[in-house]
Automatic annotation (TrEMBL):
<keyword id="KW-0863">Zinc-finger</keyword>
<dbReference type="GO" id="GO:0006508">
    <property type="term" value="P:proteolysis"/>
</dbReference>
<keyword id="KW-0862">Zinc</keyword>
<comment type="similarity">
    <text>Belongs to the RecA family. RadA subfamily.</text>
</comment>
<dbReference type="InterPro" id="IPR014721">
    <property type="entry name" value="Ribsml_uS5_D2-typ_fold_subgr"/>
</dbReference>
<dbReference type="GO" id="GO:0005829">
    <property type="term" value="C:cytosol"/>
</dbReference>
<dbReference type="GO" id="GO:0003684">
    <property type="term" value="F:damaged DNA binding"/>
</dbReference>
<dbReference type="InterPro" id="IPR027417">
    <property type="entry name" value="P-loop_NTPase"/>
</dbReference>
<dbReference type="InterPro" id="IPR041166">
    <property type="entry name" value="Rubredoxin_2"/>
</dbReference>
<keyword id="KW-0067">ATP-binding</keyword>
<dbReference type="GO" id="GO:0000725">
    <property type="term" value="P:recombinational repair"/>
</dbReference>
<feature type="region of interest" description="Lon-protease-like">
    <location>
        <begin position="353"/>
        <end position="444"/>
    </location>
</feature>
<dbReference type="InterPro" id="IPR004504">
    <property type="entry name" value="DNA_repair_RadA"/>
</dbReference>
<keyword id="KW-0227">DNA damage</keyword>
<keyword id="KW-0346">Stress response</keyword>
<comment type="function">
    <text>DNA-dependent ATPase involved in processing of recombination intermediates, plays a role in repairing DNA breaks. Stimulates the branch migration of RecA-mediated strand transfer reactions, allowing the 3' invading strand to extend heteroduplex DNA faster. Binds ssDNA in the presence of ADP but not other nucleotides, has ATPase activity that is stimulated by ssDNA and various branched DNA structures, but inhibited by SSB. Does not have RecA's homology-searching function.</text>
</comment>
<keyword id="KW-0547">Nucleotide-binding</keyword>
Length: 444
């Protein structure tokens, strides 16, 4: 008799091996490798299934789109990221670091949706119903159509959906929900996959949108299998610095709209508030021009934002001067210092500590901020000042040339709306600009 082939697989990541191992070689978990049936390589013959009725394939022009239209959630900034609102039957994943405000934002969405449309089911798998009620009371998110359930088992969550029959389901969070059909630790890839597949199937079959909260790893990626991001329709990332109240929501994947929109929010004592015009959050309030400052127009998605860049240059006797940055790319700052030294004649930077930061804690990494950073460093080196009505944007090459920045029309229009009368960029260098005395701008 031929010997039956067996293999072993990890219940956490799916890694397979021909013999048992105490520790998985792929994910490093202990005691997760179990015996599994080996594939035989023989495919069973499939009988074709008769398709009729609404399931029959039709020309694409005959497909109705009313059932897939967006409906506003009541929060304009969140709808901006989603492409106009929530689509019925959509699976939306919102990820973010602990404490950034994911639960607060979705509780606000649940309250708005319950007041405007139908019943909303909020399933908390991390907190008790009373704890969620306290947060809702503090943020003013109480409504009779908002139903709370503290469940951690997948079957119980589906039962709650059958009992409430909501128009929107929120699960906080997908990593803490378990399933009797899959073993392993809570939050493991196998369990997360099973929970996500089941909830997405419920959303599609019943045409009910499902919002899932996802944890992130220390690298900022969504915890669990990468398959989770492929299964859902929309992947949003909620980010922000705990030291500042500003929060951003970005769409990393969106099957129903663009992925270059950004929603701005502000964490307050009463919850989370929208910031429809964050123009003044990243500018200092100094009336008199100060050396070492320059304003740039940065692009957050498709939204132009004015950001003030500040620089401080201090002479030092150290053999290796320090380059300290906050909110900007340190590699680009080091490159700009080299360009100012070699092309701009600012040799004093070789023996000076350089500190560069942005106002408000915003992070600017695009090359379009090169010109403003260079002007701020040059102003801090010579002691000159840049006028408060001046804004600059453009990429600086190693040859000292200023290259045009993308979305130049949007940046220029926003600068004019905010009252900036002088603009320095690659296309408008002929404009008379109040450059500080002694400051050498990079050659155009």
């Amino acid at each position: 008799m031929p010997k039956t082939a067996t293999n072993f697989a990890c219940t956490e990541c799916g890694w397979s091996t021909s013999k048992w191992a105490g520790r998985c070689a792929e994910c490093g978990e202990w005691n997760t490798v179990i015996e599994a049936a080996a594939p035989t390589g023989i495919l069973r013959a499939l009988n074709p299934v008769a398709i009729g009725g609404d399931r029959r394939a039709r020309p694409i022009n005959e497909i109705e789109t009313d059932a897939a239209s967006h409906w506003p959630s009541g929060i304009v900034e969140f709808d901006r990221v989603l492409g106009g609102g929530i689509v019925p039957g959509a699976a939306i994943l919102l990820s973010g670091e602990p404490g950034v405000g994911k639960s607060t934002l979705l509780l606000e969405v649940a309250s708005k949706a319950a007041a405007a449309y139908d019943r909303v089911l909020y399933v908390s798998a991390e907190e008790s119903a009373s704890q969620v009620r306290l947060r809702a009371e503090r943020t003013g998110a109480l409504h009779d159509n908002l139903y709370l359930a503290a469940e951690t088992e997948l079957g119980a969550i589906v039962g709650q959906i059958d009992a409430v029959k909501p128009g929107l389901v929120i699960v906080d969070s997908v990593q803490t929900v378990s399933s009797e059909n899959v073993g392993g630790l809570a939050g493991g890839p196998a369990r997360v996959r099973e929970v996500a597949v089941t909830l997405i199937r419920v959303a599609k079959e019943r045409n009910v949108p499902v919002l899932l909260v996802g944890h992130v790893t220390k690298d900022g990626n969504v915890a669990g299998p990468r398959l989770l991001e492929h299964l859902v329709d929309v992947v949003c990332q909620f980010e922000g610095d705990r030291q500042t109240p500003l929060r951003f929501v970005r769409a990393l994947k969106n099957r129903f709209g663009p992925t270059d929109e950004v929603g701005c929010f502000e964490m307050t004592a009463d919850g989370i508030a929208e910031v429809p015009d964050p123009s003044g959050l990243f500018l200092s309030r100094s009336v008199i021009p100060v050396s070492g400052t320059c304003v740039t127009i940065a692009m957050e998605g498709r939204r132009p934002l004015p950001v003030e860049v500040q620089a401080l240059v201090v002479p030092t006797e150290a053999s290796n001067p320090r380059r300290i940055t906050s909110g900007v790319d340190p590699a680009r700052v080091a490159m700009l210092i080299a360009v100012l030294d070699r092309r701009g004649g600012l040799e004093a930077l070789r023996k000076s500590d350089v500190y560069v930061s942005t106002v408000g804690g915003v992070r600017v990494t695009e090359p379009a901020a090169d010109l403003a950073i260079a002007l701020a460093i040059a102003s801090a080196t010579t002691g000159g000042t840049v006028a408060n009505e001046t804004a600059a944007f453009g990429e600086i090459s190693l040859a000292g040339d200023i290259r045009p920045a993308p979305a130049g029309k949007q940046r220029t229009s926003e600068a004019g709306r905010l009252g900036f009368t002088t603009l320095i960029d690659a296309d408008a260098l002929h404009v008379s600009v109040a450059i500080p005395k002694g400051v050498k701008a990079p050659a155009a």
